[in-house]
Design goal:
The chain has helices at residues 21-48, 70-80, 84-88, 95-128, 134-159, 170-195, 207-233, 264-267, 269-295, 301-326, 331-354, 359-362. By secondary structure, the protein is mainly α.
Length: 364
């Protein structure tokens, strides 16, 4: 199909866009993406303020309402006083201080419920009005199932901090983050497919090798974000607060202290932080290499803009990460760093979606 479109069907960068009912569905999906992005930021604040263990009950329905009486506040505080985090970290906390951490966890859980409602209710409405075809309906039901699994995984994560630990398991925290970003990425891909069903194609066969390299970059971005989950889970950002050296060394002493060796990748603070640094720098380098490579090719404007945005966002994210480390992880910067990771992922998915060569040229 020709990339040329009529003015009425033309969208950003000249690509044909969905119109009418399809556009409404696409914008709804983008709105859900924005809510998941906000959830990632709220989750980062909840983690950085150590608020995640403040609610010890799993109440998907009744938990919508906050405490409405002094007696209820006291009951919830007494439950929190039973966990090791209180006795070992917050032993001097009073009820008013408890309310501060409670509200962050409450907002985190409430926002998750709002995402579910914002996804499910329009889904039913669009479906009943015949605006969602069968293939898309199946994919959206998968998103709904993943969202339910995310809620269960969130409680599974929180429960890991009730018995012996003073915080949640870094493994479960990273799994919770990873599933959130899988949901976000899949929603974004579906939204792009609805809004730009026939994106403009590049004019030469260069799209195929670049697309393969971009898949590799997407995998690198995913691993880098996952490594950041382990950094957060181990509070590794509160040590080795220098850059580029760590305690005066390129590779920190104690990198491989744990046995078996593979445990260092997930449980050793020095190794986890070093690996995250290395992955982040590698991501920036590869993003700029692909951007420079793309400049020598005759690509669709939407793909070309994507490569530029990806390189710039990756660099900003690296700078933000270094600043967060040097300032010993202030909550605001830590939350912005989490948001930056999602934006880098967004740019990667955007570029991957719009990087398509004409089939007859790609096969040469």
């Amino acid at each position: 199909m020709s990339a040329t479109t009529t003015p009425t069907a033309s969208g950003a960068f000249g690509a044909e866009t969905g119109r009418g009912p399809a556009r409404a569905v696409g914008l709804w999906l983008l709105g859900c993406c924005a809510m998941v992005l906000a959830m990632a930021v709220i989750g980062a604040i909840t983690r950085l303020t150590e608020s995640g263990l403040s609610i010890m009950e799993w109440a998907p329905i009744s938990g919508v309402l906050p405490p409405l009486s002094q007696a209820e506040w006291q009951r919830l505080f007494d439950l929190y006083r039973q966990v090791p985090q209180f006795s070992q970290v917050n032993a001097g906390m009073d009820l008013e201080a408890f309310k501060t951490i409670f509200w962050w966890e409450y907002v985190h859980r409430l926002w998750g419920r709002l995402i579910g409602a914002a996804f499910l209710l329009p889904l039913v409405w669009f479906w009943l009005r015949g605006r969602i075809d069968r293939p898309l309906a199946g994919k959206l039901l998968l998103v709904l199932a993943l969202g339910g699994a995310q809620g269960l995984l969130g409680w599974f994560m929180v429960a890991s901090g009730f018995a012996e630990r003073t915080d949640v398991s870094q493994y479960r925290l990273t799994a919770h983050l990873a599933l959130a970003l899988i949901i976000y990425g899949y929603l974004l891909w579906l939204a792009l497919g609805v809004l730009w069903p026939r994106p403009e194609r590049s004019r030469d066969g260069a799209a195929l090798p670049l697309r393969r390299a971009l898949w590799a970059l997407l995998a690198l971005v995913a691993v880098t974000i996952a490594s950041g989950g382990f950094v957060a889970g181990l509070n590794a950002g509160f040590t080795y607060n220098t850059f580029p050296l760590m305690d005066g060394e390129i590779v920190p002493r104690g990198y491989a202290d744990l046995s078996p060796w593979i445990a260092n990748l997930f449980e050793n603070v020095a190794a986890v932080q070093f690996n995250h640094r290395l992955l982040a720098v590698t991501t920036v380098i590869l993003a700029f290499v692909l951007w420079v490579w793309s400049l020598s090719r005759d690509l669709a404007p939407s793909a070309q803009v994507g490569f530029a945005a990806l390189a710039i966002l990756a660099l900003i994210q690296l700078a933000l990460g270094i600043t967060t480390l040097l300032l010993v992880v202030p909550v605001t910067l830590g939350a912005l760093h989490q948001a930056g990771a999602v934006l880098v992922l967004t740019a990667t998915i955007w570029t991957l979606y719009h990087l398509r060569g004409r089939p007859e040229l790609a096969k040469r």
